[in-house]
Write a structure and sequence with these properties.
Shape: rod-shaped
Strand content: 15-25%
Distance between the termini: 119 Å
Number of helices: 4
Structural class: alpha+beta
Oligomer: single chain
Order of helices and strands: HHHEHEEE
Radius of gyration: 38 Å
Strand order of the largest sheet: 1-2-3-4
């Protein structure tokens, strides 16, 4: 026998090499394709499913959002909030929520202190707000203005919106004397 410097490659080793190459290629392709397919199927599995948001996620809008949204309301919509035809809750308001001060409200519109109520000695103005119950983003501010005669024998109360509309206190679902 003659030894040759060249080795013969057997058919068996070629088949094993091809199989190893195919297995390695399959593993690489699987590692690249399978995760994307799984993520894609999971994403589409949840599509169209609506779940309620937990209440602790929604704390309500900030005062700035409420002021901006409320500024866009018409006087009729404000009256709907105040009188309860638009579901709302009436509560005392903070001065920072109002567009006017107590003095501006008490001395404005058609019941000016200096002319119409010269007989009255003192006045007080208390702000209230009617906030929608759905999203709590709309608020209508109104005021209770009380004029008291100098000797304390008579007292007149007026309810007025910041837009200048006089209100009927009997139509407002709120106990103003609960404070």
């Amino acid at each position: 026998m003659k030894a040759s410097g060249k080795r013969k490659i057997s058919v068996k080793s070629i088949i094993i090499s091809i199989l190893l190459l195919a297995i390695t290629g399959s593993m690489i392709a699987g590692a690249l394709i399978v995760p994307g397919r799984i993520l894609n199927s999971q994403a589409y599995a949840r599509e169209g499913i609506v779940t309620p948001v937990p209440t602790d996620y929604y704390s309500g809008p900030s005062e700035a959002i409420v002021k901006n949204a409320s500024r866009q309301l018409t006087e009729g919509q404000c009256l709907s909030l105040i009188y309860g035809t638009w579901d709302s809750i009436v509560s005392p308001a903070q001065p920072s929520e109002c567009n006017f001060s107590e003095y501006e409200i008490a001395t404005t519109y058609d019941y000016n202190i200096n002319s119409y109520y010269q007989k009255w000695y003192s006045w007080s103005a208390t702000p209230y707000k009617a906030v929608d119950t759905t999203f709590k983003t709309y608020a209508a501010i109104f005021w209770r203005v009380t004029f008291t005669k100098y000797d304390g024998t008579d007292e007149k109360k007026f309810y007025i919106t910041e837009g200048g509309t006089h209100l009927d206190p009997a139509a407002i679902d709120y106990d103003f004397d609960q404070q």
